[in-house]
Amino acid sequence: MSLRPLRQTEQVNIDFITPHTQERGGCLSVVVASGIHIVEYAANPSGLKTLGIQLNDIENMNLSRQYHRTYSHPAAMTDVPCGTVGIAIQGDFITDWLELVGTVSAGDAAYAGPSGTFTNVSTGGGQKIGKFIGILSVNPHTVTWRGLGFSRLFIDTCTKKPVWENNPADAVHMVSRGYIKIRVDFGASDR
Asked: Which residue in 44, 83, 96, 111 has a CA-CA distance of 20 to 30 Å to 117?
């Protein structure tokens, strides 16, 4: 889990889509693909507009085999690729999408880092998004940057070749040092 449930969400944006499968809790940036504005975990945030923290997992799901998506079921916290994604633009969150340099203290500035992470240095060119309001809770583990959820292998009837949808071997994992509480206000720089 990349975003702990203990959080205070003050403002949410539901105006954008994301085409990739990925875990919640990272810093989304706005990019233009074929004339359409989408949000994704940018490999390099330099020069991009950071928008907020992804609130739900994005997974490929076989919706014909899912329970009804009520708030009591885990599928209610999951979206599918190219669907509208919930983006928190203001509030307090505990996340593990971290790319920290050295130690972090409460009150240090938080910046958008590479691959949708949060960092404590501005050298990567990422926008300042808030500040760290807690200390690092050390718990090394991996998070999935790309490739969550349902996958299938089928034979293309035209080419007679096997085709993977969301191949598990193509998943991209990153190592996180632990969890930390961040206060974000993505709209502060626009005011």
From this structure: 83
